[in-house]
Every structure is written in C-alpha cells, then in structure tokens.
Design goal:
single chain; 180 residues; mainly alpha; 5 helices; 42% helix; 2% strand; globular
Length: 180
C-alpha cells in the first residue's frame, strides 16, 4: 500500500464546478441545517458538512491538498474546523461537556482570510471588500455551528460515551495546519 502523501490524491468535494456564490475563494454551498445564516438550503442527500465528516479521516493523512475550486476551499476550512472541534472535545469524556465546549468554540470570533491570525496564508484570497469578508464569516459561522452538531454525533455514542476511534484523530493535523 502507498504511504499517505506519496502520490495518492486526497478526497475532493463533489461540488467542484457546481453553481454557487463565492466569498474569499470559498463556495457558499447549500447546507442541511436549521441554523440561521446565508447558506442556501440543501435539497440533496449529502451536503458539504457530510463530505467533511466522510472524508475527514482519510484526508487527515495528507500533508498536501491540490485545490481544484471554491468547493475544495470550503472543504479545507471546514476540515480544519472539525479538527479543531475534535481537539476541543479531547478532554471531555461525556457528550454534555463536549457540547458545552463546542458551543463556546463556535461562538468565538475567528479570523477571515488575510486578517491577523489567519493560519492558511495565501491559500484563500483576501476579501475584495468588507461585505465579502462578512459574507464569508457569516457562512462559515453557520457551517461551523452545523458541523459542531454533527461532529458530536460521530464523536459520542448514543449513551453519551466517547467513540475512541474518532477521538484518536484529534491529534492529526490536516495539511500540517491547525486553526487556533
């Protein structure tokens, strides 16, 4: 078997090339969510959050990711967000405690592309104006809130105990990067 990063491609979003608005180079893809925000409602069986969860573990093994479009940038940012969420829940054995920690995390301000503290350098274009940066921030806030809910569903079993197999990925760094 090949080693991760030795020519095997990472998993890309199936939404590459789909018609979607963009902000900061990210596709503002439809979401299956009740959380309020700018994302259009998803009518498909699978949305970008489902893709992030489905491809999280294999993609974590890659240090490089060849961006093929805005949907991939959305996938990258949300994958790094999920990694941050797993790391945040690492010390919480019970789901209720993990839930509180993730609620605090998603309410915390996070940098937009090009802003001080932005961890991904030039991989994401800076906003052309304040409105574009705000649109990106509001979309990602909505997506992160939905991702937090679904991350809890895979990280904890129905009885509230932790899924150790998923928890073992908390220490992995996707592309050698992490969100603070």
């Amino acid at each position: 078997a090949e080693k991760p990063g030795s020519g095997m491609p990472a998993y890309h979003s199936k939404s590459i090339g789909a018609a979607a608005d963009e902000a900061c180079g990210c596709a503002l893809l439809p979401l299956k969510t009740k959380t309020r925000g700018p994302a259009p409602p998803c009518t498909d069986d699978e949305d970008i959050i489902d893709e992030v969860i489905k491809y999280f573990r294999p993609n974590c093994l890659f240090r490089n990711f060849d961006v093929k479009g805005g949907a991939d940038r959305t996938l990258i940012y949300l994958t790094l967000s999920m990694q941050q969420m797993l790391r945040e829940c690492e010390r919480h054995k019970a789901r209720a405690d993990g839930e509180k920690a993730l609620q605090a995390l998603v309410l915390k301000q996070f940098p937009t592309p090009g802003a001080p503290g932005w961890p991904l350098g030039g991989m994401f274009p800076v906003p052309n104006d304040i409105q574009e940066g705000e649109t990106w921030r509001l979309y990602m806030k909505q997506a992160r809130e939905e991702l937090a809910t679904r991350t809890l569903d895979v990280l904890y079993y129905a009885d509230g105990s932790k899924n150790k197999w998923w928890n073992s990925f908390a220490k992995r760094k996707f592309m050698g990067k992490e969100l603070k």
